[in-house]
Amino acid sequence: MVLAAVEHHEPPGRRLVDDDLAESFLPSGPRALARLTRWAPLRAAVIAASERAGPGLWASIACRKRFIDERISDPASEIDAVVILGSGLDTRPYRIARHSDLPVFELDQPVNIERKAAAVARALGAIPASVHLASIDFERDDVMSVLDANGFRDTGRTLFIWEGVTQYLTPGAVHAMFEQLRAVTPGSRLIFTYVRQDFIDGTDLQGAEAVYRRFRRRSQIWKSGMEPERVEEILRGYGWTVVEQAGPSYYRDLYIRPTGRTIAASPIEWTALAVRSA
C-alpha cells in the first residue's frame, strides 16, 4: 500500500495504478514517507531503491493491482459481491463503496482486521454498511464457514480476490483453500497471485537474489509457489477454468509502455483469473 500511495503521486499519464485512498490508510510513519514522495526526485529515489532490493517487483505489484481493479470495474463483469482473501490495508472496498452498495467481505488475520478497522475509522470516520470485516486463520479455518457467519450469500457472481497471499501460506493451506472454494456456485470468479515454484525452489532466481535471500534463505517467509505452465491443469482439478494469466510481458505491453516509463516487471510473480466451472 506504500507503493500504491507513492504511485499516486506520479502524473496521471505515468501512473501504473491509481489509488487516492492508499496514503490515508497507512500508519503514521509510512504515511509521512508517502507524502514526501510528492517531490519527484524523492519519489524516483524510493522507486530506485525498491528496484535495487527486488528488480521488477515495484512494477509487478502496481500492475497486478491495476489488473484486479480493472476486472472489478468492467461493466460486463456482473458482480454481486466481492470477497477479499487477505485484505491487509487494501482500499478497494472503500473505493467501491463511493459509487455502489456492492457487498464486499474482507477476510484476514485478527490483528490485521483490527488494524484495518482502525485505519478506516481514522481515514473515513466509519466503515461503510456494504463492507464486512471478518477474522480468519487461512492455515486452519474454513473460508466458506467464516463467510456464511458474516452474511455472505453465494449467487454465482462473486469475485474472490486472493492477492499477494499464496506464497506466505504452506502448500497444504493453499490446497485447502482451493478445496474450500469448490463449494462456490458455478460462475463465480477468482483472481489470485502466486510466486513461481522454480523461484521458491531456488532453481531460477530470475536476477532477484536479494529477494530470495530475504524471503527464502534467511527465513522461510515465502512457502509456496506454482508454475505458470501448470496453473490451468491445477485449477481444473479443483473445478476452476483459467481465463487468463498476467505476467511481465502482459504488464509491459498493456500498462507500462503507455506510461513511457522504462521500469520492468518481475517474472517471479504472476496473476491468474479463473471461473468456477459448471
TrEMBL record:
Keywords: Methyltransferase, S-adenosyl-L-methionine, Transferase. The keyword Transcription does not apply. SUPFAM superfamilies: S-adenosyl-L-methionine-dependent methyltransferases. GO terms for molecular function: methyltransferase activity. It comes from the Bacteria. It is an enzyme of class 2 (transferase). One of its GO terms (biological process) is methylation. Its EC number is 2.1.1.-. PANTHER family: S-ADENOSYL-L-METHIONINE-DEPENDENT METHYLTRANSFERASE YKTD-RELATED, S-ADENOSYL-L-METHIONINE-DEPENDENT METHYLTRANSFERASES SUPERFAMILY PROTEIN. Exhibits S-adenosyl-L-methionine-dependent methyltransferase activity. Belongs to the UPF0677 family. This is S-adenosyl-L-methionine-dependent methyltransferase. It comes from Mycobacterium adipatum.
